[in-house]
Design a protein that fits this description.
Helices cover 58% and strands 5% of the residues. By secondary structure, the protein is mostly helical. It has two domains: 483 residues, no CATH class; 117 residues. The protein is globular.
Amino acid sequence: MTVLAECTERPAVVDPQDAPRAARPRWVRPALAALLLGTALLYLWGLGAAGWANDYYAAAVQAGTQSWKALLFGSLDAGNAITVDKPPASLWVMALSGRMFGFSTLSMLVPEALMGVASVALVYAAVRRVSGYGAGLLAGAALALTPVAALMFRFNNPDALLVLLMVVAGYCMIRALDGKSTRWIALAGVAIGFAFLAKLLQALLVTPALALVVLVAIPGSFWQRLRDLGVGLIAIVVSAGWYLALVSLWPSGSRPYIGGSTNNNLLQLALGYNGLGRVFGGDGNPGGSSDSGGDGPMGGSMFGGSTGITRMFGESMGTEISWLLPAALIGLLAGLWFTRRAPRTDRTRASLLLWGGWLIVTVVVFSFMKGIMHPYYTIALAPAIAAVIGISVRELWRGKQFVTSRVVLAAMLMATGVWNFILLDRTPEWLPWLRWVVLVGAILVSAVLVAGAHRLGRWTAILAAAGLLFGLGAAAAYTVETIAGNHGGGIPTSGPTRAGGGFGFGGPGGPGGPGGQRASDNAELKSMISQADNRWAAATIGSMSASPLELSTGASIMSIGGFSGGDNSPTLEQFQAYVAAGQVHYFIAGDGHHGPGGDSGPGTQITKWVQQHFTATDIGGTEVYDLTAPN
């Protein structure tokens, strides 16, 4: 209750960094410890229940523990045939952990969970420097209890490192408001550059907000701010460009093919399939038509649903991220309005510009992008929503326009209660009473806020506690359900299991995965592969078959065509050369799936050549060719 008291006081707040350490309220350290320890417990509890999570990245992590070259390039296999379709920064962290502690589910996923704890700590630190301890704790708790955050900070996709580094950049920008701006802006640029090496162009979605804060709010003359902006840009280019240069200058014949690219070039991957193709369609993404985000095979709920301004609230994204989004938008608009006449360097407005700019730009891009858009991408919004909530609630509570501020707070809570009722109603069989409790509680607390919060006296802290309970309760319950459930595969979703949701590539029930699952469960086949000592124990079409088999045997399995089997690697000529050199022992046929490209695709060409020159053997129901014994 003493923590809430800090939010109920109306006098102006002295910036925490300006106060002597002894002057800090005694409850700060215990409250912060409870937040971080609670987050750690939440994110580490039952970690690994989903097995290898995303087999695709897990196989690459395993390869990185077996080969330093595979670690450097992010190879899908220790033989270094092809990389995953992302840069390898997140794989570096997980593979190095595996090298230190032995490759396992926990050595792979614990670093991801700790990234979540660090993100919560940094959001707290950034918000409390501007709006005080209570606001920082609220922002940290809001991030920790976001369902999609709890999902992805327990997963092995690149999003955990991406979000952590973007939060680092945001924290550095807040520090730049206090002075020594050049150094902190440079550090923010370094963080964004390495975030680019985690997930390419998505890392740049926060740069407009960072640039806006530099130009508008950083102390100094216009030319000094312009210089600082240039320093930040250079830092981004250098911290991302060194790896692009390394890959480009490394002889292509002695490194793996860049998965997802069309010409074995990482920059083309960044601008094509995993870059502008995600925004405008094409380059391996759904088409660029206005209805490409519909309900077709590449536009259903697991691929973002229909495009449009309501996308973040729709069936696909809503329960992942939008629990506090209406309140954050209301608070952002109100905060910017109330600070419109503040000095240029006003820290509160600068903080709102930072986190609010991050929020608006990301929402707009995610809402209208026509390429592949998975629901879990929305974790990139979680820190911005949490920070805006913390700042706006604190500043509105102590606002000089007392009545108007409390009306806005009531509107934020009311919008949260109504919207959370709608979200919970999407899974009516799960805790059916919760949506009514949240709705009625939010209405009652909102009414008290408008009618008589200024007359409650010592009961004000109880009112604030009730507001937090009804404001965060639904998201917290959904988060706990996410932790308790089993969310695996390539396209995980949070919360209770719903019909038609939660499938994943390479995971149970993944499309195109049955052949890979049967092979990975085939004891006789696994024994044969484990005994092979070739560069690649086996080759098969696509990662959906290769990854589970690689994980179950620990052997190097060539994924012909990369993720979906459609990459032009290896070519038929390259594969023939590998076989002639004795570098591939077995070829495992799929269930008629040769990958995209029809008769001209590498998977089809290689399959036909193998069938013509080698004899098939049935191994436990799987068609296998011994490439060391031609006809």
